[in-house]
Design a protein that fits this description.
single chain; 474 residues; alpha/beta; 6-stranded antiparallel sheet; 5-stranded mixed barrel; 12 helices; 34% strand; globular
Length: 474
């Protein structure tokens, strides 16, 4: 039986063009944008066949590690391996780290590289394309997947295919890669034929990729090899060594390897694919009403046409609008013409420069044990709603500048306060004095919901001294 293919899933995207839904601490791959599951979960389920695929390997950063692990648990993805990048270095170093880890265990390992934030509408076509690519990769070539263009798109790179690969129908040598073209060049390429969009998905033997990386980007190969060799296993995560990885050259797999190797092959496929790069894309692939609108959430639309209207919180009402995008979250609203949504990144840049929280996180902040949300705040006080997953517990901690009062509104809490350990039921409360060592745990089968009132001279999240933390946080 043929060896299983090892999925390597890249989870480092920021998705700034999908603000205000996508945030730095909760980016688009973690969002359910096209159905009940997140894009990350959909990607993982796409390669869940145990007869064909090995357990997936995920490349992530520190900020998202617990969120990814929890989403994989919710989706029933077992035995996944999560590798943490200490810094963003683009796709080539991340893929190299995955290749090194796979090749250590199996020198013949075949890896399927996929971004975690793409949509594929035709799963059967995807399966056929992977089979063709695997057959080609067995000959030692490096395969990229080309998407059949549906128009002269200027936001994608293009691949020109050359001669067909001998004895492997559907696979072609790559003649050249074309950077994102202008409209005139894109139109000309479509008219000429033989061009595909560059999907950012690849399949090759891990060892062959490493050989090509060492040839074309030797400094990167040395740095990543060192970062893997000095890496550490912590709980369910493998952490690349920060010093050497931080010094690694930053480059994409296209620039570092695929555009330079003599063994690049493309498998063109019509996958009903989208990289979900902007709100206009979600309008294009979404289900429209009779007016051409995609409407999601609590929305009332009157005389609206060809618009994307989405509310994640309160009622959104739109009257007489056309070709517009409106996305409302609990703390922000985006309004833009549908043909200007690529410029949303300019908004996120302004928010980041101003240090605004709306760029970084949602009002609901996720933690490995659950989540919290600030519901009111003023001079010297803050009120939060805290939700703790069953069986989860916060770190053993203390505060230098605030006291807390906890009220249980759902579930059962186990409280540690200095030397005391006791349980609280619904309606019961407890005071946590300033400086007291404390911990909160959910011991009920359902999540624990708790109202926390903070009182003090400073109420920032950095006023936490962790004395013990099962999640390995500082």
């Amino acid at each position: 039986m043929a060896s299983k293919i090892h999925p390597v899933i890249l989870c480092g995207g920021a998705g700034t063009r999908l603000w205000p839904l996508s945030r730095a601490l909760y980016p688009k791959q973690l969002l359910a944008l096209t159905g009940p599951r997140s894009l990350l979960q959909e990607t993982a389920m796409r390669v869940a066949d145990p007869d064909r695929f090995a357990a997936p390997l995920f490349l992530s950063n520190e900020d998202h590690r617990f969120l990814i692990a929890e989403q994989l648990r919710e989706a029933g993805v077992a035995s996944a391996r999560l590798v943490l990048e200490p810094a963003a270095r683009n796709t080539a170093p991340a893929i190299a780290a995955g290749a090194l880890l796979l090749a250590q265990a199996d020198p013949e390992a075949v890896m399927l590289v996929m971004p975690s934030d793409h949509v594929i509408g035709d799963e059967a076509a995807f399966g056929r394309a992977v089979a063709t690519a695997a057959e080609a990769a067995a000959t030692g070539v490096l395969v990229t997947f080309g998407i059949e263009p549906t128009g002269p798109e200027t936001g994608y790179g293009y691949i020109e295919r050359g001669a067909p690969l001998a004895n492997i129908p559907g696979a072609f040598k790559v003649t050249r890669f074309v950077e994102k073209p202008d409209a005139e060049a894109a139109t000309a390429m479509l008219a000429a034929g033989g061009f595909s969009w560059n999907s950012g998905m690849f399949l090759f033997r891990a060892q062959r990729f490493l050989e090509e990386l060492a040839l074309h980007a030797p400094a990167m190969m040395v740095a990543v090899t060192d970062a893997v060799a000095k890496g550490t296993q912590e709980q369910d995560f493998f952490r690349l060594e920060a010093g050497t990885y931080d010094a690694c050259p930053r480059d994409s797999i296209d620039y570092a390897v695929m555009e330079k190797t003599a063994d690049a092959v493309v498998v063109p496929a019509d996958l009903r694919w989208s990289d979900v790069g902007a709100w206009s894309t979600l309008w294009e692939i979404g289900e429209t009403d009779t007016g051409g609108n995609v409407i999601l959430g609590d929305v009332i639309a009157e005389d609206a046409k060809n618009s994307y209207l989405r509310s994640e919180a309160r009622l959104l009402a739109a009257v007489g609008v056309e070709d517009i995008v409106v996305v409302a979250t609990e703390d922000a609203v985006l309004v833009a013409p549908r043909d200007r949504v690529q410029d949303v990144k300019l908004v996120t840049e302004q928010l980041a420069a101003a240090g605004r929280a709306e760029q970084e996180s949602h009002p609901v902040v996720h933690r490995p044990w659950g989540s919290y949300q600030s519901v009111d705040a003023g001079d010297g006080f803050q009120v939060k709603r805290i939700i703790v997953r069953p069986g989860a517990r916060l770190s053993l901690q203390k505060h230098a500048k605030r006291a807390e009062h906890w009220i249980v509104v759902r579930g059962t809490a186990r409280v540690t306060r200095d030397e005391e350990v006791f349980d609280l039921e619904v309606g019961e409360s407890v005071d946590i004095p300033l400086g007291a060592v404390h911990r909160l745990e959910c011991i009920s089968e359902a999540p624990l919901h708790l109202i926390e009132v903070q009182l003090g001279s400073y109420l920032g999240e950095d006023d936490i001294v962790r004395l013990d933390d099962e999640y390995g946080r500082a």
